[in-house]
Every structure is written in C-alpha cells, then in structure tokens.
Design goal:
- The complex is a heterodimer.
- By secondary structure, chain A is mainly α.
- Chain A contains 14 helices and 1 strand.
- In chain A, helix 3 crosses helix 4, helix 3 packs across helix 13 and helix 7 packs antiparallel against helix 10.
- By secondary structure, chain B is mostly helical.
- Chain B is built from 12 helices and 3 strands.
- In chain B, strands 2-3 form a two-stranded antiparallel ribbon.
- In chain B, strand 2 and strand 3 form a beta hairpin.
- Chain B starts with a strand and ends with a helix.
- The chains are: A mainly alpha, B mainly alpha.
- Chains A and B meet through helix 1, helix 4, strand 1, helix 5 and helix 6 of A and strand 1, helix 1, helix 3, helix 4 and helix 5 of B.
C-alpha cells in the first residue's frame, strides 16, 4: 500500500500529456511543427495567439460562446430553483411522471433534435441568435439543474421552512432570505454544471448559428477544413477554450466532489 | 424519507420549467414523428408513407451494423471506465495538498469542448506530428488511425477513457468521502481484510453514485457524436460510424428526412428503454442491500 499514490499520479500524467502536447504545439511555428519532431518548442513564438486576438472572426467566437453560455446558466438556475423546491417539498398530481419526463430529455441524443430545432428556430425568427442556442441548451441543462438542486434541497431540514413560516415570513421572502443562502453551494454547483454542458456542446450550437452567434468551437472546425493545415493556430484556439473551464473549476474546487454526486451522497 | 405535503399549487412553481422544456422537446419531437410517417419528393410536398420507414429500417443492414458498433462501443467504455474509476478513487488521497491537485486536474478534461477533445486526440495520434502516433511508430507498432480500423477504434476508445473516466472517479470519490471514520475503525477492530472492507463498507456506500455514474456514462456514450466525428469522421470505411454519426449523415448529408426521422425515434426509444431497465434493476439492488444491512 506504500505505492498507492502511484495510481492517481500515473492517471494524472495520462490526463495531462495530450493537453501538454496541445500547449506545446500552440507555441511553435508551423514550420517547426511539420519539419522537426520536438518535445518542447525550440523556437518559442506567440504568433498563433496573436492571430486569434487580432482577427475578429476568431475572437468573436469566444464572445459568442460566453454570451449564450451565460444566458443559459441564468435561465437554467432561475427557472429550476422554484421547480426543484416544489419537487423536494411537496407532492402533487403527476410529480413522479413529470420528473422522469424531464430526465428523459437529458437522455435525448442531440443528433435527433438538430434538424427540427433548425426548422423551429428559423420559423420563429430566432435563428443565429444567442438566445436560440441558450434556449436549445435548456433542453438538457434545465432537467439537470432541477435534478441537482432537488438533491441539495432535500438535504436541508424541513424544520427550517416551518420555523420561518411561523415567524411570519412570506414564501418569496423566506425563499430569498433564508432558503437560498442555505443551498448556496448547491446553486454554485448547478451553475457549474450548466456552464460545463453548455460550454462543451457543439452539435446544437453549430446547427442553430451561422455568423452572428457562431461559437468558437464551430469556428475551429471551419478553419480545419478551409485553410487546411494551420496546426499552430488550431492548437492555440484549443488551448484558449480550455482556459475558461479551468477558471470555473478553481471557483468550485471545494464543492466539486459533492457536486459531481449531484448532491446525493 | 420525509413525508411530503400534498400541495397542488406546487404545479405553479414547476410550470415555467415544464413550458420551456416542452417548447424545446415536444415541438421538435412532433416534427420528427411527422417526418417519420411521410415521404417527400421535394417542393415541400409530403405523402403519407405509414410505417414503411420503420419497416425498412428494422431490416436494413446499415442500421444493424451501426447499432451493433454502438453497443460494442458503450460496452467497452463501461467495462473499462467503471472499474478503473473505482480503482483510482480508492487510491486517491483523502487529505492534504494532494486533494485539490487531484480534483482540479481530473475535472479538467470534462470542461473541454467536445470537438476540442477530438482535435487534441487527432493531433496527439498523428504519426507525423503527434506524440502518441510518433512514439508508437518509433516502437515499431503499425499504427495509423486514418487507415486501420483497429487503430481507429483504439484511438476513439482511449480518447473516451481520457475524457470521461474522471466523472466516474469524482462520483466514487464523493461516495467514499461520505463514509465516517468510525466504520473503518470498527472494521480494523474486527480484523477485516482489505477486500472485506471494500465489499461490505465501501461498495454499498458507493452504490448510489455508481448508479448515477453508470447511467450518465451509458447515456452519453450511446449518444456520442462530436469526438469520433472529429477524429475519424466515422471512418475508415464505416468502422467507427456510430448511431449518431449515421443519423446525421442520413438527415443532413443525404437529406433523407423520412428514414432519418424513423431512425431518430427508434434510437431515442432504445435509449429510454435501456435507461429505464438499468435504473429499475440498479435501484432494486440498492433497496435490497439496504434492507439486508438494516435487518
């Protein structure tokens, strides 16, 4: 058992190697990538990053992604809060069926919905807007948000609600002043998950956008096929998509383990 | 479990969620159902086709092979990721500086956009500029994922292990952290072996999170699209064309809306059915073992 730490160490090495390789490539010139095989950049350059930060068709992709992810997180969390409270505290007609139905949408393959979504959002004039992608991502993020929040809320004793009502709190005031602070970490975790699944999804985001709201990940695929082999810029763009996730993980690092268990340990 | 209060007004709290999800789910689903029973020759003219598409699909060689590939892929993924995840979670440190390091680095792959994951492995596996491909070739192993089906499968599977094992690890770790120290002390006093501790203390405590991990991994691996699409594009030949890729080829590539819609529905129903079965079976096991432990 003395070498137990080796297992996670090897695993982490395995996780970091491909990421290191991407960073390594993003700091090389295209000539170096294609001519010599080197484990670290001999001719260190930041040109690849400069291309991205100066070309509007590149950096607007990041802004678009950020906008629709933020809208999605706000919608998901604020809609899911009262619903999760209802599921965790009350029983009502059809509650179990409704809950299962919500979860089935988490299971729906996006490939099934891609084409109908395109037609639906085109017909109501929302095609190529940030809000369309944000609402489309609600399909899987809202059920997940309700699911996670319900788990955290069920962990809060019911006596808190009852005491507050006896003290004369109205429901909205109780909810905002007492209940939400109690599940603050749960809300953080929920926002983290909504961010995560909205940030990593490509198929729907690509289907629903053309120019104005095109996400960075879709711009990357286009560049691969069009200009062919600009590996350095591609790698730099990839590195930049990893950064926001890293930042967000840092904020929730203390709750991450419990969060991944969706509040149900 | 606390007895919940009957309150029909709670529907009002659920209503916004219900409406929004219904908008995003029911209308597109009805569109799909609509297409699946009609045929078109363009010009927006549709003809009633009945269940022809479904009948064709159930008998089509192409659907069968895509379906089998999908099952094989999900099977391999689950068989590797779940045991590996448990093993890593068991050997992770419980306190000290190692904890945040492990958690943050392990969560990292989960937050990378899926097509970037594809790109990373596409580069990493290339024989000329990728570390993996270059090293394997240098060792004398014939590895080229764009031509050899076996190498393509190997790349896609190892990519998925890289991408998603952390989810299983983090879930199991959360389960393990919730076990009070007193349990281990009691086990030590009884002289329980390492295996017995795992079987009778750790495994039961991880059951709920394992259920979640299993369901999430199964659903997501069954729906996988972006990563293999970026790495292999479904090739070489059709060897890594999974259900989603086949579906998108059919719907967007060939614009065969009828067959594609029929395929969507069957695909969705299969996922629902399998998840329901797994969910019921696994929660029944959970129920039995808690009853057993309690008596």
């Amino acid at each position: 058992m003395r070498f137990k730490w080796l297992i996670p160490a090897i695993y982490i090495l395995f996780l970091l190697l491909p990421i290191y390789w991407l960073v390594n490539m993003s700091l090389k010139t295209n000539d170096e990538i294609l001519s010599v095989f080197s484990l670290w950049p001999h001719d260190l350059t930041l040109d690849n990053y400069r291309v991205i930060f100066t070309d509007a068709s590149w950096y607007s992709g990041y802004i678009n992604s950020m906008i629709y992810v933020t809208i999605n997180v706000i919608i998901s969390v604020s809609f899911a809060l009262p619903a999760a409270y209802a599921f965790s505290r009350y029983s009502f007609v059809g509650d179990k069926h409704l809950f299962f139905w919500l979860l089935t949408n988490r299971m729906a393959p996006p490939a099934v919905f891609a084409l109908p979504f395109f037609q639906l959002y085109s017909s109501i004039g929302l095609f190529d807007t940030h809000i369309a992608v944000a609402i489309a991502h609600c399909l899987f993020n809202l059920p997940l948000a309700v699911w996670i929040l319900e788990g955290f809320m069920s962990g809060v004793p019911k006596e808190i609600d009852e005491t507050a009502f006896i003290d004369g709190y109205s429901w909205p005031r109780f909810f905002v002043r007492i209940f939400i602070p109690n599940i603050a970490s749960g809300i953080g975790v929920t926002a983290f998950f909504c961010f995560m699944f909205s940030w990593v999804e490509l198929l729907l985001a690509r289907t629903l956008t053309a120019v104005n709201a095109k996400p960075i990940s879709a711009i990357m695929t286009r560049t691969v096929s069009a200009s062919g082999l600009d590996w350095g810029v591609l790698a730099a763009a990839g590195v930049l998509t990893i950064l926001p996730g890293t930042l967000v993980i840092w904020f929730v690092r203390n709750h991450i383990a419990k969060g991944f268990a969706l509040g149900r340990v | 479990m606390i007895a919940k209060q009957q309150n029909q007004k709670a529907w009002f709290m659920v209503l916004p969620v219900f409406l929004l999800v219904a908008f995003s789910a029911v209308i597109p689903l009805m569109t799909v159902v609509n297409y699946s029973v009609q045929d078109t020759f363009g010009n927006n003219q549709f003809f009633w086709a009945g269940v022809d598409w479904f009948r064709n699909l159930v008998h089509s060689e192409r659907f069968h092979s895509a379906f089998l590939r999908q099952l094989l892929f999900s099977g391999i993924i689950l068989a590797i990721e779940i045991p590996l995840g448990i093993l890593i979670a068991l050997s992770m440190p419980r306190r000290g500086w190692g904890v945040p390091v492990c958690l943050i680095t392990m969560a990292l792959p989960l937050l990378i956009p899926w097509n970037v994951v594809g790109t990373i492995w596409q580069i990493f596996g290339r024989v000329d500029i990728g570390l993996l491909g270059y090293s394997l070739t240098a060792l004398g192993i014939d590895y080229n994922y764009t031509q050899d089906p076996l190498a393509a499968w190997f790349t896609v599977v190892i990519m998925d292990i890289w991408h998603w094992t952390s989810l299983v690890v983090l879930l199991c770790y959360a389960g393990l952290c919730s076990i009070p120290d007193a349990y281990y002390q009691a086990a030590r006093i009884d002289g329980a072996s390492r295996l017995a501790i795992f079987r009778y203390i750790q495994l039961p405590k991880m059951q709920r999170v394992l259920l979640i991990a299993f369901l999430l991994r199964f659903m997501d691996s069954f729906m996988i699209y972006t990563e293999p699409f970026v790495i292999t594009g479904g090739g070489p030949g059709n060897s890594t064309t999974f259900l989603s890729i086949d579906l998108v080829k059919l719907a967007v590539g060939q614009f065969d809306l009828g067959p594609a819609a029929a395929m969507s529905l069957i695909y969705f129903l299969v996922i629902l059915l399998l998840c329901y079965v797994f969910y019921t079976v696994m929660s029944n096991i959970g129920m039995e073992s808690t009853n057993h432990g309690g008596s």
